[in-house]
Specification:
Mean pLDDT of chain A: 95
Number of helices of chain B: 0
Shape of chain B: globular
Largest sheet of chain A: 7 strands, mixed
Structural class of chain B: mainly beta
Mean pLDDT of chain B: 95
Helix content of chain B: under 10%
Strand content of chain B: over 45%
Structural class of chain A: mainly beta
Strand content of chain A: over 45%
Oligomer: heterodimer
Low-confidence stretches of chain A: none
Largest interface: A-B, 27 and 24 residues
Order of helices and strands of chain A: EEEEEEEEEEE
Shape of chain A: globular
Chain lengths: ~120, ~110
């Protein structure tokens, strides 16, 4: 059974870069899509972006200018970098696996495996 | 616009039926899926492809759609169904869009 584990600093200073890594165990990182989602306290889920094992990415338009995702297949890991951090980026960050289907001529992505999440606080 | 709007909260008596709605222009074109999130836990996919239940999800959960509105219905709500529910769809570039979330309270 595939499991995901987020790792990274729990506290980041404003204006710095947040770096998180997700380690995939129990299965290969190949042939799937991998994503990051966050949940700010008292707010709803926000999708940050996804990466395929080829390195191809899709980012949330509202975060695109600050986001970089990468994948390291040799380590079965993928990563998130979010720069120019502010207090508004304080949230629980989840890494996740997406599966893709084609329905009625459109691609759909479903998040079928989630990590437990890691809390990130932005504060000086 | 790809924005998805949900009622912030609904309540349902134990064993009764509750419908959670999600509205957005994109739903006229794209299917919705639904995620359940309980406090302190990661979300779980409940419904995908508009009305397919994820393996292991009780059949009291069902999805439907009409026009710009997608719905998740819980028929015979149980105490363990108390959670936040998020609708989800895509935009024209396959990016995920989550609804604002609905907190379901089972009385």
């Amino acid at each position: 059974q595939v499991q995901l584990q987020e790792s990274g600093p729990g506290l980041v200073k404003p204006s710095e870069t947040l770096s998180l890594t997700c380690t995939v165990s129990g299965g290969s990182i190949s042939t799937y899509f991998w994503s990051w989602i966050r949940l700010p306290a008292g707010k709803g889920l926000e999708w940050i972006g996804r990466i395929y094992t080829t390195g191809s990415t899709n980012y949330n338009p509202s975060l695109k200018s600050r986001v970089t995702m990468s994948v390291d297949s040799s380590k079965n890991q993928f990563s998130l970098e979010l720069n120019s951090i502010t207090a508004a980026d304080t949230a629980m960050y989840y890494c996740a696996r997406e599966v893709r289907e084609v329905l009625s001529g459109y691609y759909y992505y479903y998040i079928d495996v989630w990590g437990k999440g890691t809390t990130v606080t932005v504060s000086s | 616009s790809s924005e998805l709007t949900q009622d912030p909260a609904v309540s349902v008596a134990l064993g009764q039926t509750v419908r959670i709605t999600c509205q957005g222009d994109s739903l006229r074109t794209f299917y919705a899926s639904w995620y359940q999130q309980k406090p302190g836990q990661a979300p779980v996919l409940v419904i995908y492809d508009k009305n397919n239940r994820r393996s292991g999800i009780p059949d009291r959960f069902s999805g439907s759609s009409s026009g710009n509105t997608a719905s998740l219905t819980i028929t015979g709500a149980q105490a363990e169904d108390e959670a936040d529910y998020y609708c989800n769809s895509r935009d024209s570039n396959t990016n995920h869009v989550f609804g604002s979330g609905t907190k379901v309270t089972v009385l």
